Amino acid sequence: MSKFAKVRDLVMGLEADFEKFYDKSNQAAGTRVRKGMQDLKVLAQEIRKEVQDIKNKAAAKKPAAKKPAAKKDAGKAKKK
């Protein structure tokens, strides 16, 4: 299952508990919402780390771009 699908399923799975807590003041549903949000936080952090690792690996594989040589004293050479 893709990471996005996990996030989507987790959020959608909390919908009923959100409604029960906010609309019906069901305290047990509030506890489930808090647990689900903590799970979402952990999953989000894992995804962030994975994305950063992939970006760092891609950057490490790219050869360093060569910068053009600085044109020092280009104007002075013409004046002489």
What does this structure look like?
It is a single chain. The chain is 78% helix and 0% strand. The N and C termini lie far apart (70 Å). The chain has helices at 3-13, 15-24, 27-61, 74-79. It has one domain. The chain is elongated, with a radius of gyration of 27 Å. It has four helices and no strands. Helix 1 (3-13) packs antiparallel against helix 3 and helix 2 (15-24) packs across helix 3. The model has no long low-confidence stretch (mean pLDDT 88). The longest helix is centred in the middle third of the chain and has 35 residues, at 27-61. The protein is mainly alpha-helical and 80 residues long.
Please give the alpha-carbon distance between the first and last residues: 70 Å
- Mean pLDDT figure: 88
Structural class: mainly alpha
Proportion of helical residues: over 70%
- Name the quaternary structure: single chain
Rg over CA atoms, rounded to whole Å, is: 27 Å
Most strands sheet: none
Q: Please report the number of helical segments.
A: 4
Extract low-pLDDT stretches. Answer: none
The shape is: elongated
